[in-house]
Amino acid sequence: MLVDLHSHTWPRSHDSVLNPDDLIERAKKAGLDGIVFTEHDVIWEDNDLEEIRAKHDFLVLAGVEISTDDGHILAFGLDKYVFGMHRSEELAKYVETSGGVMVAAHPYRRQMPWAAGDPEQYEKALEKATQNPSYKFCVGLEELNGRGSDAENEFSRKLCERMELPGTAGTDSHAIADIGKCATFFEHNIESEKQLIEEIKASRFYAVDLRSGSPVATSKSIS
Question: What is the rounded distance in angstroms from the CA atom of residue 50 to the CA atom of residue 59?
Answer without folding.
Answer: 10
